[in-house]
TrEMBL record, chain A:
Organism: Apiospora saccharicola
Record: residues binding ATP: G86, K87, G88, G89, V90, G91, K92, S93
Annotated residues for binding of [4Fe-4S] cluster 2: C259, C262
Keyword flag Iron-sulfur: yes
Keyword Glycosyltransferase in record: no
Protein name: P-loop containing nucleoside triphosphate hydrolase protein
Biased composition (Acidic residues): 1-10
Automatic annotation (TrEMBL), chain B:
Cleaved signal peptide residues: none
Coiled coil (residue ranges): none
CDD domains registered for this protein in UniProt: Mrp_NBP35
SUPFAM superfamilies listed in its UniProt record: P-loop containing nucleoside triphosphate hydrolases (SSF52540)
Annotated InterPro entries: Mrp-like_CS, Mrp/NBP35_ATP-bd, NUBP2/Cfd1_eukaryotes, P-loop_NTPase, YlxH/NBP35
Protein's cellular compartments: Cytoplasm
PANTHER family tied to this protein: CYTOSOLIC FE-S CLUSTER ASSEMBLY FACTOR NUBP2, NUCLEOTIDE-BINDING PROTEIN NBP35 YEAST -RELATED
Function (record text): Component of the cytosolic iron-sulfur (Fe/S) protein assembly (CIA) machinery. Required for maturation of extramitochondrial Fe-S proteins. The NBP35-CFD1 heterotetramer forms a Fe-S scaffold complex, mediating the de novo assembly of an Fe-S cluster and its transfer to target apoproteins.
Record flagged with keyword Membrane: no
Protein name per UniProt: Cytosolic Fe-S cluster assembly factor CFD1
Keywords: 4Fe-4S, ATP-binding, Cytoplasm, Iron, Iron-sulfur, Metal-binding, Nucleotide-binding
Length: 342, 307
């Protein structure tokens, strides 16, 4: 067995408080391990003969004692919305930032964005707060405030260097997500938006299990029109069903591109199987709308500006406003209270 | 280990999702195979496998043979045309329904990656391309650990790192380059994908995701820059519906007139585009794609670089 490449504690100086996590094992988990944190730990058939058996069997069992703490910490948050997609690079983070900016346009709304993409955090750059660090006080961690009513939390704020790789396996990622929920002082928020990495694995399971008790409004799915992307998004919807997360709706991003010179509309990622609209119909979930490709969106993200404020008259912005209003409807609030009229 | 008869292992990596890792893997595989090499593609994106769709073999299932799994054949070697064989292995072949979610935590993903590396009967291969999910987590750590432990010295040629030009993407890909240097995986080179889009109507080139970010990043990390690949909706269509690429008259790529190559078949191709996949080999149809000359060059550079 080669030495593990997982780094011992790369951001140890920032993550001071020890977490309740899996017990200290003396050997790697075997293939059919029920999970050292699970109810069956140390007792399942596969545990017989495992060097960890005694350790797992004596570890504390039952629901995570931190969940009530998380629920207490998040009690001042009215709506919690997940942004999901099975596929990478479809615009989850872009959509999350735009949703955040849209919600925060009304001064009375307080909005928080939590970036659970541990290995590839994009939110800080898109929000223009990449160089910030978090402040730790006796009562918890303060989020980084982009504006008076828009706060952000991401692992990027904890890295000593901007380009540092976070080489972590699942349990460690789960530990950090738990800290984001348990220790961050969000205060009273109207909306907490949770941006996620692509896939259906540790981060998604953790967010769901930690937030279940305090209540999740639901998840917004982001996709692009082509079947290669829809295929993975279908899996994510299946995951939501299995995990009992309500799907608030599906957004199709990168739908068509209008040439700035001749205004010809090209379907770059052509919807050969009907695109997002057909998938939403097939899965019985609301379709929130199509957002076209606009080079200015990418540029706004690179410079950390709000696309909403910079180009309010662009077709992409109009489409996005429609999506935000549709989403507001799905979580049962008046669209006028979310996005001021034009 | 099942990789004993594999000459070179190349990883396709990117810290960012959706930049075209699987598209690049597909095209490298087609290009290497068109050059006469025998190629295997291993898809270790467990929660979002794309390779079966890319090669249009979604219906295929993996066969269990004594000693391991047999990969799915995309096409056989053809001595006449000088095309090498192309085979593929993905978790997609092991799922019951194509929409089924694979909800696995780390240890199970680790076990699967190890199994893919040890139990697939590749046989003799010139190149094994490994397509990966985004990030620097379980799958990547397991890949690196297993390969460092089991591979022959020099067998792992290194990583082809894919990015798109915009800063938001290169920020994540920089992390992946640091991952490579920490784990001792050599970097074969950087490919900038989605670098510009040429309007099919007026030939105006728009840099939808800006331009040049990949090249600058490669310079900063002293890595070889393998090339910039534009967005080609015809390639998307080739993968999506098996339609043969068609270009308007006057489309020039690297000095080669792409429209001329297809002029005689244009009519026929247009009808197939609206119906369904025709039976010609994916590799044959790819010859008519505007990206083929670009990948041909990239492939030659890679082959020269790794010897």
């Amino acid at each position: 067995m080669a030495p593990s490449l997982e780094e011992p504690e790369p951001v140890a100086d920032v993550i001071e408080n020890p977490l309740k996590s899996k017990p200290e094992l003396v050997a790697p988990e075997p293939e059919h391990c029920p999970g050292p944190e699970s109810e069956q730990a140390g007792k399942a058939d596969n545990c017989a003969g495992c060097p960890n058996q005694a350790i797992c069997a004596s570890a504390p069992k039952g629901p995570d004692p931190d969940i009530p703490l998380i629920s207490a910490r998040l009690s001042g948050i009215k709506h919690k919305i997940l942004v999901l997609s099975g596929k990478g690079g479809v615009g989850k983070s872009t959509f999350t930032t735009m949703l955040g900016h849209a919600f925060a346009m009304r001064e009375e709304n307080n909005v928080g964005i939590m970036d659970t993409d541990i290995c590839g955090p994009s939110i800080p750059k898109m929000m223009g707060v990449e160089a910030e660090t978090i402040h730790v006080s006796g009562t918890g961690w303060s989020p980084v405030w982009v504006t008076d009513n828009l706060g952000v939390m991401s692992i990027q704020f904890m890295l000593p260097n901007r380009d540092d790789a976070v080489i972590w396996r699942g349990p460690k990622k789960n530990g950090l997500i738990k800290q984001f929920l348990k220790d961050v002082e969000w205060g009273d928020l109207d909306f907490l938006l949770v941006d996620t990495p692509p896939g259906t694995s540790d981060e998604h399971l953790s967010v769901n299990s930690f937030l279940k008790e305090s209540g999740i409004d639901g998840a917004v799915m982001v996709t692009t029109p082509q079947e290669v992307a829809l295929l993975d998004v279908r899996k994510e919807i299946d995951f939501c069903r299995k995990a009992g997360i309500k799907v608030l709706g599906l957004v199709e991003n990168m739908s068509g591109f209008v040439c700035p010179k001749c205004t010809h509309n090209s379907q770059i990622f052509k919807a050969t199987t009907g695109g997002g609209a057909a998938l939403a119909k097939e899965m019985g979930i609301p379709f929130l709308g199509e957002v076209p490709l606009d080079p200015r969106i990418g540029r706004s993200c690179d410079y950390g500006e709000s696309f909403f404020e910079a180009f309010p008259d662009s077709p992409a912005c109009t489409a996005l406003k429609g999506v935000v209003r549709g989403l507001a409807e799905q979580i049962g609030i008046d669209a006028k209270l979310v996005l001021p009229d034009d | 280990m099942s990789l004993s008869k594999v000459k070179h292992v190349i990883l396709v990596l990117s810290g960012k999702g959706g930049v075209g890792k699987s598209s690049v893997t597909t095209q490298l595989a087609l290009s290497l195979s068109l050059a006469g090499h025998s190629v295997g593609v291993l898809d270790v994106d467990l929660t979002g496998p794309s390779m079966p769709r890319m090669f249009n073999i979604e219906e295929a299932k993996v066969t269990q043979a004594p000693g391991g799994w047999l990969p799915v054949t995309v096409h056989e070697a053809n001595a006449e045309t000088g095309v090498g064989e192309l085979r593929c292995m993905s978790l997609g072949f092991l799922l019951k329904g194509r929409g089924d979610a694979v909800v696995w935590r780390g240890p199970k993903k680790t076990a699967m990656v190890r199994q893919f590396l040890t139990d697939v009967l590749w046989g003799d291969l010139d190149y094994l391309l490994i397509d990966t999910p985004p990030g620097t987590s379980d799958e990547h750590i397991s890949l690196a650990e297993t390969l460092l432990k089991d591979a022959r010295p020099g067998q792992v040629a290194g990583a082809v790192v894919v990015t798109t030009p915009q800063a938001v993407a290169t920020a994540d890909v920089r992390k992946e380059l640091n991952f490579c240097s920490k784990t001792g995986i050599p970097i074969v080179g950087v490919i900038e994908n989605m670098s510009g889009f040429v309007c099919p109507n007026c030939a105006e080139c728009t840099n939808i995701f800006s331009k040049g970010g990949g090249e600058v990043m490669a310079q900063e990390f002293s890595a070889r820059f393998l090339g910039a690949v534009p967005i080609d909706p015809q390639f998307v269509m080739l993968v999506e519906s098996g339609a043969k690429p068609v270009y308007p008259a006057g489309t020039m790529v690297n000095g080669k007139d792409m429209s001329g190559a297809n002029a005689s078949t244009e009519q026929a191709a247009q009808t197939t585009a609206t119906t369904s996949r025709d039976s010609a080999l994916l590799a044959d149809k790819y010859r008519g794609c505007s990206l083929e000359p670009i990948f041909n060059q990239i492939t030659r550079d890679i082959v020269t670089a790794i010897g």
